[in-house]
Design brief:
Helix content: 40-55%
Shape: globular
Largest sheet: 3 strands, antiparallel
Number of domains: 1
Structural class: alpha+beta
Number of helices: 4
Radius of gyration: 12 Å
Length: 86
């Protein structure tokens, strides 16, 4: 994909990245209000990325895939370059 940046979310000793993403996406899709925002916060704060990017991952705007113990996504470079997004 042209003009993208690859984000790789690695597993940590206490957190398996693919499981975290699947759990958070399911929770985000089935929750409302403040609870919904908490799922975004968990992933955003765990990996140091903006909630807008996480929301795009959760809602399918940005596709992600599981590669072993990692979650990999191609994020538009413009999204990564925007200071409001980081």
């Amino acid at each position: 994909m042209a003009n993208t940046k690859t984000l790789v979310f690695v597993s940590m000793p206490l957190c398996h990245a693919p499981s975290l993403f699947r759990w958070a996406v399911q929770g985000w899709k089935t929750s409302r209000g403040k609870e919904k925002r908490q799922f975004l916060n968990i992933v955003a704060e765990s990996y140091g990325i903006n909630q807008t990017i996480v929301k795009a991952l959760f809602d399918g705007t940005i596709e992600w895939s599981v590669q072993g113990d990692k979650v990999v996504a191609e994020v538009p470079a413009t999204m990564m370059a925007d200071p409001e997004m980081n």
